[in-house]
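Fold this sequence, please.
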Amino acid sequence: MGIASVSDRDDSTFSARDRPGGDPIPLSALAHYMYCPRRCALIHIEQTFDENLYTVKGGLLHERVHESGAETEKGVRVERSVPLWSDRLGLIGKADVVEYHGDTPYPVEYKLGPRRDAPHAAVQLCAQALCLEEMTGRKVPQGAIYHHGSRRRREVPIDAALRAETMVCLLEVRELLARGVVPPPANDERCRHCSLRDSCLPRVTGEPERVSALYQSVFTTDSEEERCANS
């Protein structure tokens, strides 16, 4: 007899506020942190989120993925927009898709761009697998990242190395959120298409000499105006 699928559970079991140890960490925070710690802090500490072409397209993609709840394709049960949590790790979030190969859960994370190595997506997928293991009592040995840009799926082994990397990331995110301090910007190639670029201002805040020059310019001007007013 097969196990109950995630969508068969009562929705009341997904209440994040009732779980011990304070508010759980969103699964998305791990991906944000792996991509850029400052991005994670701006979103999850300062509640900053700006839209750009990529976030709008990504939102539309996830809306299409989440349109139907569950179905069976070629003998594989497919559930969409699946709520996830882990009491043990203090995580909560949602999986784009969870397939059931027999009784074995198989999470699938959808990403907008072409197929490429994406450590932040792999960590997010692994965190989903850890939640599914706790929720279903079944081992999750692998999952997949579906790259919409190339219409290709990349299988990701949920192995010991990725699990360890995910646990380190979770501890660092928890420490970051507990401190409540926004790290300095990366000011590198990651910033080009980041939706928070206008809020983060990586070129300004990431280059101390530019900050110093702006500081000198502002306060030198103020001092000159005061001298003129007093003369």
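Helices lie at 27-35, 37-44, 53-65, 119-136, 160-179, 197-200, 202-205, 208-230. The mean pLDDT is 78.
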